[in-house]
Amino acid sequence: MTIHDLPAVNATLNGLSTIFLTAGFIAIKRGNKIAHRNCMISAFCTSVVFLACYLTYHATVRTVTHFLNPAWFRPIYLTILATHTILAIAIVPLILMTLWRAKKQNFEAHRKIARWTWPLWLYVSVTGVVIYLLLYQVFPQN
């Protein structure tokens, strides 16, 4: 494995986060608090590993792949990328607050913030995979 394999690894980690987030949501809706906790901790750990790999890749490669072709799809791609990037930054404190409230067993406050955290986190995870697919698989930018 080389540094150039990290985008695929990152997409996989985002995909795993998506799976854990979805399973955690289903678990809590079914009243299974232990499965919910385990899934959300797994989603968090997967996201932390993703962030480490993402930062390693960009610190090492130091080039940005620009989406140029096809030109008609570029505005769509840039919209997805912009919303993903903004929400990826915004979601970090929300995730930390949500997990902290659960750890402190302040479940009423946890639920209030989780209503915002979960869909935003899910969006960031899903769009991370979409961005990878668009940039490296569907419309490879050479």
Tell me what you see in this structure.
The chain has helices at residues 6-29, 33-61, 74-103, 107-138. By secondary structure, the protein is an all-alpha fold.
Short description:
With 142 residues, the protein is mainly α.
Helix content: over 70%
CATH topology: Four Helix Bundle (Hemerythrin (Met), subunit A)
Name of the level-1 CATH class: Mainly Alpha
Succession of helices and strands: HHHH
Give the mean pLDDT. 96
Determine the N-to-C terminus distance: 21 Å
The helix/strand class is mainly alpha
Low-confidence stretches: none
Shape: elongated
Radius of gyration: 16 Å
Number of strands: 0
CATH superfamily: Cytochrome c oxidase, subunit III, four-helix bundle
Largest sheet: none
Question: What labels would you give this structure?
Answer:
142 residues, mainly alpha, Four Helix Bundle (Hemerythrin (Met), subunit A), elongated
